Structure formats: structure tokens, C-alpha cells
Amino acid sequence: MWKCVKCGESHEMQFDTCWQCGTTRVGKEDPKRAADYAKQKAMEADLATLNERAAKIFISTGPIREPFQVVDVVFAVDSQDQGMFAELLSVAIGFHVGANPSKAFDKVKLQLKSQCLDLRGDAVINCQFEHRVAIANSPIPGRGGKQTVEIFAYGTVVKIIKAST
What we know:
By secondary structure, the protein is α+β, with helices and mostly antiparallel strands. It contains three helices and six strands; from the N terminus they run E-E-H-E-E-H-H-E-E. The strands form two sheets. Strands 3-5-6-4 form a four-stranded mixed sheet, with helices on one face. The protein has a two-stranded antiparallel sheet with strand order 1-2. Helix 1 packs across helix 3 (101-118). The longest helix is centred in the N-terminal third of the chain and has 24 residues, at 31-54.
């Protein structure tokens, strides 16, 4: 085993280049892979910051008791594909393994929260969530096709009015 000097990823000896960042075993960087790795790390940091800020935003499928001012209405959509591994697993075990709607649902909630932050809101209320499942034909006769789950959502961004003391 060897450990990448740049990102710390462990690799077996038959590999000469780090799959994570593209650095060779002796520490030489591929400029394109290094730029891609830096971009990926920056995106991960941005997502972590967004998740931290979004944790303060409240999402509700109903109204709230606090007085508020309506800011705007927001809409979000995301999809989750079944993926090749799930399709192969379906064939191997003999029954259908579908796409995971929870991942799409989490992404849609994050989009709603992100839009709320952009509008300087405190909450997204009266949210409505809908879904749709699409299945493409399978190249394997007698098997279900590749599944995609789409989640649509909309809600009202509000600014909570703080009580005066």
C-alpha cells in the first residue's frame, strides 16, 4: 500500500496514480486533475457551508404560529436515478431494486432552503411535495427498466416578525 502525498488516499501498489486527485506515487501532479480536484474540494466546502446555513431554515407543510411577512413563492425539483449497480443487483437477486426517493427529497429540501436564504427568509411554509416515477425499458428481456424518481416541491418563503420588547 502507498498513501498519496497530496490527499492522503491509500492505494494498492499496482496503481501508480491517485484516483482521487491524480497525483503520482512520487508526488507529481497532473495539472488538469489537480485543477479538477481543487474545484471538487471547493464545491464540497461550499456545500458544507450551505448545509450549515440551511440548517437554520425551517420547512413546514403547514402554517406557523409566529407572525410573518410573505417574501416570495419558491419551486424546486430533483431526480434520483436507479444507477447501474442497482440494475445489476436487481438481475442478480431476482427482484427490482429501485431509485432512492429519499436522496431526491433531501436535495429538494436543500434547494428550498437555499432559495429561502437567497431571499433572506426565515422559513418555507405551506410546502407541497409531489413525485413521479419514470421507468425506461430494460435491455434485459423480462426485467423492469431503469427507474428515475422525480420530486417537485413549492412553498412560501416568509420572514418571521420578531416580537418587540
